[in-house]
Amino acid sequence: MGSHHSDNVAHAVALPDDRGPLSYTVDAAQGPVRLRYFAPPAHLRAYFGSLYYFTVAADRYADFTRADVPQLRLMLEGGGDYHFQDGTVMATPEVCLLGPTMGATRFEVDRPLRVMGISLLPAGWLALHGGDASALADGLCDLAAERGDVYARLLDRLRALGDDADAMAALCWSELGRLTRPLRPATWELLAAIDAWLMDEGSPRIEVLAETTGLSPRQLARLANKYYGAAPKLLARKYRALRCSARIALDGVSWQQLCEEGGFYDQSHFIREIKHFIGLTPHQLQTEPSAVAQLTLLRRSLGGDVAVLNRLS
Predict the structure, then answer these.
(1) Which pLDDT tens digit goes with each residue over 24-54?
(2) Cα(41)–Cα(50) distance, rounded to whole angstroms?
(3) Across 68-112, where does the E strand assignment appear?
(4) Which residues have CB under 8 Å from 266's CB, separation 6+?
(5) Per residue in 11-31, pLDDT tens?
(6) pTM of structure
């Protein structure tokens, strides 16, 4: 989710609030920006990451969302535009399926906003959409128009619940559970292998993944595009940047140290990668992270209640 303007940030810090567990507020200059996380029930943990209730009180707001997994966003109130890394600008439909993003994405809203969102892991992508994820990378679609009015009915039911986030979360998990179907064992094994490879702390080599899966680099590229939205090399860059950004912003690790440890060519390369995937420079992450950058990074606080991949993305 907008731009790194000083009036958005004002050095405000994300703090726990009184709206429930895993609920945080940033008192941005234009008004509070709030986000509350909900962990999925155990039987859906392999399909979906966290569910979140995101609200912006301001009449106008802009920020950046980092590169991420696909997101289903049900617009309870308000709307706006996404500005993707290739310059494409798209208005947000009421039932918005945001594809996997391979760079920071700017968003702008022009009125107060309430959104119920769900992070989709590859199995969840297959359950809700089923197409090639790379076809919607750095883009979006109206999921109600493409996949039937079950989602439009869900949005209506969520709106009828007012501001009761717990009830909305329970309804979402119930309805999403009805839409999931088991995958073939071979597909689960492949997804587990790619996830583990992406979580490698260094710069994972495609040869390692090929040896683990018994697939050729060409086969891996095709399957990674289908399930994750990009070829393995780009995915590895993305998750390396996400890991580094969390260590900078949450753990206070020197970005110069991470540059040396992470297999980057030099400091300029490190800065470019972080800026591309996160939307902020390493220095900005350390000293003045935007409201959404802080709130998104706090997804890590869900710990073992979400898939490892979702703690970082």
Answers:
(1) 999 988 889 999 999 999 999 999 999 999 9
(2) 10
(3) 71-77, 80-83, 89-91, 95-98, 105-109
(4) 259
(5) 589 999 999 999 999 998 888
(6) 0.93
